[in-house]
């Protein structure tokens, strides 16, 4: 085993000039120490003339620096230290937080407190140190660094001295509660809402004799029912979460460093584990070895980033062929601090403290991905638990509140005011003669508490679950998933729809339709000509990579060489890998564009035969020969660079070539000057094609070797690595490329996009398209999708870079309010920065807005600004990772499961598979959800109001005495067993047939006005409750006397009338009967009849068997219900609602 680095070498690493500007701290974990601390101290070398160490301390706004030398610590003999029992304290470490004046923090990391022994070397040393401005934990817990961004140096040793538990545990825990916290936490979550707390106070008040007006159970049971339903739902959800966690935590993995299988939850940083095909990756790993000789492995990342394409990962070349013993004992891994980005990673692996190789994201296996390739791989755990990329990107979803719920809350506040007003009014009528008048007010508040319906929230939450079930089981929109069940009613209130283009309006099924070489273009109809040119690739007289050198005597020969150069470059310059699964060839790539290009080259006779990280082989189908190229370097595509490049060596001619393709906006500056690129790019964009510019550059061996040397040095840097690498690429490669040509890839519209957009527009929804594509492409697609009508004027704003230019455009838009707007991202940024209010005051009224060249953040900003400026409901729909921000910022986010993955789908409130399903989701389910919940809310409030009115009338007739009319089971049963099921069955009603919602989409416009639940409809229901409650109670008291002996008779007739009145009102409000509704009505009625004999404590059962009782009951119900029915019928005849007109017109 090699000796550990000396104390001096540690110090030299700290003062390494390459790190002098780095504001990060470094934990050095030296795992090369022997089992015995004695051996570690024997190897610890201390200079005779040490340099002073500077301790940097910060207290508040003041900073102080303490000078210490190693001699300050060396007065304590190592011999005496060896006698110490504390052998688990770690060597001195450094916090590499280097400031510009080269002062740094001196830090020690330990897993136990220092020994109290005076002769303990490390204990004495620690007494001089300021450890991240925190005191040493007296309980011996690991010290927490002041800065969580800590780089780590990891040695996969079987006998580590340091305590690995100082890192995050790898145990997964998504449970919200435990046995101890379940009840207290849930009670807090419920009673932090005013209304639940109000009912709790009302219930508890019955324990006070002066306030008691009935049985405690009368008020506790309704509240307990609500809490029980909520707690049961939470408990079931939490049990399911725990079950999933337990399954993940107990998955076994073979740990090489421990030579045994270990549950996932017990994995530690530094463990070497063996992962097999199909295994879930349990933590963030660095891939060290693969069973494939090439070191390649594929992973599935759909559960991490939503992308369904397999990702290629490669083992570090330095470790691919090492023995297990060398992996355990002779390597160290430096990993950057944990961070959220799944596309970035900086690190390096060192072998025998001498040879180093850089590590990038291509060498990582992130937690929660799955190994897809055959065989196995060996990897080292670098991040666990909350430090993994998956955990750091898991955020608590923002709880969305629907517009209907906000409206109900406003109405509930009015009801609350009504309770207080009515209570004070009745006491005032009594004249405040009683000295305890304030107690009477409190008793009235308790009596009228039913006005504020405690069960309203439960009813609405259960209704939302019903709507979600209906949506997910609708066969016309298969595979639809409801991820946020709190806002289905908002689907019926959408006024703005912001849509992505690629994969949302289009299929994201790419086909290369055209290539342009400057003077000539070839389309899918002229593939035979291209195939003929490609046949010459294996001609022994033709240089496959440099056909331009061939003597050309005719224009045809010149064109032949240009086509071959173009096709060959397309066939090589990509990141596509052919894979075989169940003996079927599939192409794996991050972008459908690349697969489309590879399939195009295959169609013209040059197919991708084999590829690994070192080589690529092309099969020339005409001759059957293979063209082999060594891959020297790959520069992957990303959204920032907008280009992809590759350096290859032609094995036949030993020539070096740099090939690159990318967006025209960036490639125009890299290729040689020309006079046709911009024009042809615009022409292709007008045809709706996605364009890529193709270029190449020949490199001499000397230039390549110089590039490789500088590029490798930059790749080993832990500071600004990407920036340094980019500078090297620009210096040697990205300039003066030979422009080969231009490709045009077609992305067809999705099924029924045109008709869906027309339906949504007729429904009163303003549709915006936000895309990252080019201006002309966006214009073409918007016209073909009927976002813009033929002949409709489109005002285009592009390249506005000055505020005065933006102001002039605003003045024009004020005059032309009927124009469609097409704007690029650069101009949009200018408006957002300088004229946000003025700009959106205008554009929200335009018929259509198309924003192109948009960044993901700009998409999100547009959604937020529209919500803020208009106060209207905004729906955003997309399919890609670049749409996630926009979707999450919307009132309603809809994700399409696309070919690029599920990232948008997983982040959305609703997940669908096609854009056309949105019409069903909004026009049918959105309409029903809103109208049903509005009616349900009003019925629940009516149910509480009417019984409160009965109580108020009784109190007035009782000379304003606050005495309860209904007590015990009557109060409990009224809101539950006797009325709840019929009222809740309204969630199954619909006022119009499903087919008519698409024939008459204009019906949707009325929903956005909120007429189904408004202050107007609320006061209508208040008057209705006042009328019916007064009729029921007054006639009940008229038919019986107020003598004490007749109280039971009066309660019997009034309560029965109350229950039957509610059942009849529900029946009158139903538009479309179904079996469930009919059963709930009949079953509830029968249940009440059966329960009457058990209510002898409240009713006069003898009186209820007389004909007089039924006659009086019938009269009360006729007077209570018939006028309401007549008024409703007359109003509908004079002012028929739109849905009634449509239904009547559609009925034969």
TrEMBL record:
Q: What is its EC number?
A: 7.6.2.1
Q: What does it catalyze?
A: ATP + H2O + phospholipidSide 1 = ADP + phosphate + phospholipidSide 2; a 1,2-diacyl-sn-glycero-3-phosphoethanolamine(out) + ATP + H2O = a 1,2-diacyl-sn-glycero-3-phosphoethanolamine(in) + ADP + phosphate + H(+)
- Bias category Basic and acidic residues: which stretches? 73-89
Q: Where is each P-type ATPase C-terminal domain found?
A: 906-1136
Q: What cofactor does its activity depend on?
A: Mg(2+)
Reply yes or no: does the keyword Transport apply: yes
Domain P-type ATPase N-terminal, first and last residues per copy: 164-213
Q: Which family does it belong to?
A: Belongs to the cation transport ATPase (P-type) (TC 3.A.3) family. Type IV subfamily.
Primary enzyme class = translocase
Put simply, this protein is called Phospholipid-transporting ATPase
| GO BP term, example | retrograde vesicle-mediated transport, Golgi to endoplasmic reticulum
Q: Where in the cell is it found?
A: Endosome membrane; Membrane
Q: Which residues bind Mg(2+)?
A: 500, 502, 879, 883
The answer to keyword Ligase applying to this record is: no
- The P-type ATPase A domain covers which part of the protein? 260-308
Entry GO CC: endosome membrane; plasma membrane; trans-Golgi network
Q: What is its main location?
A: membrane
